[in-house]
Amino acid sequence: MTFPQKRIRAAGCVLWRRASSEDGLEIGLVHRPKYDDWSHPKGKLKRGEDALAGAVREVAEETGMDCRPGAPLPTAAYLANGRPKQVRYWAAEAVGGAFTPNAEVDRLEWLSPADARDRLTHERDRSLVGALLAALHLA
């Protein structure tokens, strides 16, 4: 007998901060050495954890930043190691904190929206940059 695979539930944020650049903001991306990729901070939800609370927790764990969540952004759905995965995202402004490299995330970079789009490893993450700009009425 086979059982349907349970969907992996995850959440994250497109982290941003105000900047003096032409766009007026920078987007924070994390580098994960395990996958050698650049992505938005995100992670699996704990059992019974609310998605927004999990997204804020993941931002703090991966970036060291306190954030103020804002508008919901599109949900990503894809296969991860053959299992269906759903990641809910929110726009979130970084309001303080400091990054410390760790085993899961070794780098945090703040980039203009155009540079962030170029740096992101996965296509599914790139569309979130435009969604953030639209949510902030900058697109």
Describe the structure in your own words.
- This protein has three helices and seven strands, in the order E-E-E-E-H-E-E-E-H-H.
- With 139 residues, it is α+β, with helices and mostly antiparallel strands.
- It has a single domain, classed as Nucleoside Triphosphate Pyrophosphohydrolase, CATH 3.90.79.10.
- Strands 1, 2, 3, 4, 5, 6 and 7 form a seven-stranded mixed beta sheet that branches.
- Helix 2 runs antiparallel to helix 3.
- The mean pLDDT is 93.
- One of its GO terms (biological process) is AMP biosynthetic process.
- Keywords: Hydrolase.
- It holds the Pfam family NUDIX.
- It comes from Streptomyces piniterrae.
The third-level CATH topology is Nucleoside Triphosphate Pyrophosphohydrolase
User: What percent of residues are in strands?
Assistant: 35-45%
> Can you give the mean pLDDT?
93
Provide the succession of SSEs. EEEEHEEEHH
Number of helices: 3
Helix content: 10-25%
CATH superfamily: Nucleoside Triphosphate Pyrophosphohydrolase
Question: Which CATH class applies here?
Answer: Alpha Beta
**Given the C-alpha coordinates, what overall shape results?**
globular
> What gyration radius follows from the Cα positions, in whole Å?
15 Å
- Major β-sheet annotation: 7 strands, mixed
Question: Which regions are unreliable across 5 or more consecutive residues at pLDDT < 50?
Answer: none
Task: Supply the number of structural domains.
Answer: 1
Q: Which structural class should the secondary elements be placed in?
A: alpha+beta
At CATH's second level, what is the architecture?
A: Alpha-Beta Complex
Beginning-to-end CA distance, first to last residue: 50 Å
Strand segment count: 7
GO molecular function: bis(5'-nucleosyl)-tetraphosphatase (asymmetrical) activity
InterPro entries: NUDIX_hydrolase-like_dom_sf (IPR015797), NUDIX_hydrolase_CS (IPR020084), NUDIX_hydrolase_dom (IPR000086), Nudix_hydrolase_domain (IPR051325)
Keywords: Hydrolase
GO biological process, one term: AMP biosynthetic process
